[in-house]
Known about the structure:
Elements: H1 2-11, H2 13-48, E1 53-57, H3 61-68, H4 82-89, E2 93-105, E3 108-113, H5 115-121, E4 127-128, E5 136-139, E6 150-151, E7 154-155, E8 163-164, E9 170-175, E10 187-190, H6 191-197, H7 200-217, H8 221-236, E11 263-268, H9 271-280, E12 286-289, H10 291-334, H11 336-344, H12 349-390, H13 400-426, H14 429-434
Parallel strand pairs: 3-10, 5-9
Antiparallel strand pairs: 1-11, 1-12, 2-3, 2-7, 2-11, 4-9, 5-10, 6-9, 7-8
Helix pairs in contact: 1-12, 2-10, 2-12, 10-13, 12-13
Amino acid sequence: MIRFILSDLRRLWAGSLVVVLLVALATALGVSVVLQERALRLGSARAADKFDLVIGAGGSETQLVLSSVFLQPSPLPLMPGEVLGKLAADPRVDWAAPIGFGDSFSGYPIVGTTTMLAQNLSGDLAEGKIFAREGEAVIGSAVRLPLGGEIKPMHGSLEEGGETHTELVYHIAGRLRPTGTAWDRAILVPIQAVWHIHGMEAEEHAEDGEHEHEAASGTDNAEHGHEHEKAGADHNGHEHHGEADPDAALDESWTAGAPGLPAILVKPKTIADAYKLRQDYRSGNTVAVFPGEVLTNLYATLGDAKQILVAVAFGAQALVAASLVLVTVIHIGQRRRQIGALRAFGAPRGAILGIVWLEFFFLVAIGIALGFALGYAAALILSGMLSQTSGVAMPVGFAREDAGLAAVLLAFATILAALPAMLAYRQSPAQALRA
């Protein structure tokens, strides 16, 4: 029977190929949607695991996480610099690293931060050393620049018509190990250098005076936050320029007079400390978030989109199934003489049923297997493209539930193959030979 089926498939290779391709493409659509959505979830969750707590000025929690953890460009309001001093002196905090962004070079974001974050982000460096002066930088593993190379920071990006800073040129001192996060595409520089080239030092003294005046006059917290938000807008608009000394030593002892900051990455000492800190900084002019919680809320929104895409994929598979039924009915009609001849030579109805069912099931099963392979390849390509632009590693792989999807599709193929088999089973030899 198997030799007869293989011989029949070789004779009808064109039609068989069409059936296999239809099933494969419909299956690949559904598989690629499932794999890509899972890769996005896993990749973003692993990237967020690098950071326990993020503190920023009051506003959108989602935007705070996207900007500080995933380095998506967006202007954030500045919170008072005194928050950094309080966190640095807090016994519940292992370390607190301020970050400042807005500049870029060759498409890579430049992030102002501290040696503490640069040391803890990926563990040991892949090569070179941590920056020790204002004019030094550490690059992520995916930044295609050589050690010792020059970095001329540009405010904004080239596409937006950004302005190149002339106050300071960074030299690359080291390279981080891969982290699988957006920080692999980042250029890390001392936060004090970012403050200096943006004239934030002058703002520091001005803000100190404003703080004293507000304390004396009883100005409320709302006005205080508005002043820092305006300072943040001035910084994003690049209205301030300053001077920086590339050979200046770093001073990472934070005081209440530090300039305003868009975000602070915090490493609490314990889980209990993390929850207490989040509670303490979720009032007034600041907001504290766990990146994982924010992503969970974001996943809920993405889940609706996934359901729509999966529904579209299954709709496409249903259309393919309907077209296969139509093709099969026509195919059985064209093979009536062959079926009649087999019956006339003594082939039992059960044998005819088995031949037609096995032949059709074999084609659909090959199409499903090919569809899984094509869907996996499509998800790999798409994840690679997204990883290259975002820096977030997106692992593509099959999970246990995918075996259930394959079983459902094969069960559907079993039922679908039964239709042409029953049509062939019910044909009488005499009618088939007279056709």
